[in-house]
Specification:
Largest sheet: none
Radius of gyration: 25 Å
Shape: globular
Number of helices: 24
């Protein structure tokens, strides 16, 4: 009876419009005060314990990295690369929008940010070449949900913290499902495009593909830093998140120059001599290749004895010099060493100008208005999410103290539930809840309840986590509280009803995807097991 009252209080508070964090916290406090013999001091202890949860420290850093990477410049570069990759297929621009969403999702970890950044540009582009507004909006609304499935994902961090599983395993588990979801959406687009005779973009050749890849490289390299650092044993997930925040700020401000005092300052000016530009680009490629080689070798060889920093630097430097020479032969049209040296010297003039500008504007850039705004927005998001998490963990503490999950587990096992029927029940519960609640809040409510049952039934906790994340993904595009629906409606000016109707056909694709993920566990578990070995579960 008391258990029913606890859940009734949560639902009641949510129904009257109380924010999810307050609903969880107030329900827990009232339940402890009215129906248990536990002291209210346990509430304070539980809330204090949130601050000592090391895994949760990754969340503010991932949010900050997402904020810096959510600049218009990064989105444009990803869309260009995506169009160069798949734009020449029938319905290619729509497929490129999905691919761009997949790449941006891997940078931001946020579905709404993906919809805003990619959708603002991609929907307008699709409309210009003859796609209907409904079709374009439906694609972006669905593809944007990949933000919480493709790692690094904040929702995955929340799940890992709530049930005490490995963040690294969760990130790896999301790779294959995330790629599969994107491919299924692109396949559906291709079928529709053939049926409706939608246009294909002109194939611009490998040159455009390589150029687009170079342009998007520094943004996409963030994925390598996060994933390579974690699985190379260099970073913990929290340390990887901190490194990602610093890297994304540096790339956005100093390399891409999408914000701050360098926003209107190109690396190469029209007045620069062609010879100087060739020399400058050769050194850019050489230095970039050197840094990338050093970082990758550090991740790959950090545990290998006998491989020193000096040896890695030596081999990386030799490869970088060779790359510079090849570029000078190709673009500089010379094999004369003296002429090559002359080109490099002329390129140093451009380097000197840019370094002088960056040195002078370094501190103004870090403390500029745009930088402050990004940090402030990230802080607001962090405070809101951490408040929800703190109260959700208090709710989970109340559930555990009263043995509510164990009681529900015993009831379900006594009712004859097996792993197959249990997963059906979990999916139904999450799909219904996802229509009314924000993903992180719903996950934090449900996870502590269903996790013990899943363990009793022999369900892999990582597999369960991916199932829950996919349900959260679908919840973001199902009314009445589908966040991606509201965001898409906001950027397109369409009514919510029109967006729901436009997204519906592609939601069906994600439902099929959910069935595959639910009942083919190896989609989630194969890669984590391959990289990190079998998981040891302590019951």
């Amino acid at each position: 009876m008391e258990t029913a009252i606890l859940f009734a209080m949560v639902l009641g508070f949510l129904f009257v419009g109380v924010p999810v964090g307050l609903s969880l916290g107030l329900s827990s406090i009232l339940y402890v005060a009215l129906f248990t013999t536990e002291s209210l001091s346990s509430v304070a202890i539980s809330l204090f314990g949130v601050g000592t949860h090391y895994t949760l420290l990754a969340i503010p850093f991932f949010i900050l990295a997402s904020s810096f990477m959510s600049t218009g410049g990064v989105a444009k570069r990803l869309i260009r690369f995506a169009i160069a990759s798949v734009g020449h297929f029938r319905g290619g621009l729509a497929m490129a929008s999905v691919l761009a969403c997949m790449m941006f999702a891997a940078l931001s970890g946020s579905s709404p940010a993906t919809v805003v950044a990619i959708g603002t540009i991609a929907i307008a582009g699709m409309r210009q070449v003859g796609y209907s507004k409904e079709f374009a909006s439906g694609i972006i609304a669905n593809a944007g949900t990949l933000g919480i499935l493709i790692p690094p994902s904040i929702v995955m961090v929340v799940y890992a913290a709530s049930v005490d599983v490995s963040v690294g395993r969760m990130f790896l588990a999301g790779v294959i499902p995330g790629a599969l979801a994107g491919l299924m959406l692109m396949l559906a687009i291709y079928v529709v495009a053939r049926y409706k005779n939608l246009p294909a973009e002109e194939w611009k050749g490998m040159g455009e593909l390589i150029s687009g890849g170079k342009d998007a490289f520094w943004g996409l390299f963030l994925i390598v830093i996060i994933m390579g650092g974690i699985y190379g044993g260099v970073f913990t997930p929290t340390e990887a998140a901190a490194a990602a925040a610093v890297y994304s700020a540096f790339v956005a401000i100093f390399i891409y120059r999408d914000m701050g005092p360098f926003k209107d300052e190109p690396w190469v000016r029209e007045s620069d001599r062609p010879e100087a530009v060739v020399g400058f680009k050769s050194t850019v490629y050489g230095v970039s290749f050197l840094l990338v080689c050093l970082i990758l070798s550090f991740f790959a060889l950090s545990d290998v004895e006998g491989v020193t920093l000096g040896s890695r630097f030596q081999w990386s430097l030799m490869a970088s010099v060779a790359l510079m020479i090849l570029y000078l032969v190709w673009r500089g049209a010379t094999t004369n060493p003296l002429q090559m040296l002359s080109l490099v010297n002329q390129g140093l003039i451009i380097w000197g100008r840019n370094l002088a500008i960056m040195t002078k504007g370094f501190f103004p850039a870090l403390g500029g208005e745009e930088t402050k705004r990004v940090i402030l927005d990230a802080t607001k998001t962090t405070v809101m999410l951490m408040f929800i998490i703190a109260n959700a963990l208090l709710f989970a503490h109340t559930l555990a103290a009263e043995r509510i999950p164990q009681t529900i587990t015993e009831w379900m096992l006594g009712a004859g539930f097996n792993w197959f029927t249990f997963l059906i029940a979990v999916n139904i519960l999450l799909l219904l809840g996802g229509q009314f609640m924000e993903p992180s809040g719903l996950l934090l409510i449900v996870a502590p309840v269903v996790f013990p049952i899943a363990m009793e039934l022999g369900i892999d906790p990582i597999h369960l986590g991916i199932i829950m994340v996919v349900n959260m993904e679908i919840g973001m595009i199902t009314p009445p509280i589908g966040l991606n629906l509201f965001v898409t409606s906001g950027i397109t000016g369409m009514s919510l009803a029109r967006v729901v109707k436009a997204a519906a056909p592609f939601v069906a694709v994600l439902f099929v995807f959910l069935i595959l993920v639910t009942y083919i566990p190896w989609l989630s578990t194969w890669l984590p097991t391959l990289v990190m070995g079998p998981e040891i579960i302590a019951k």
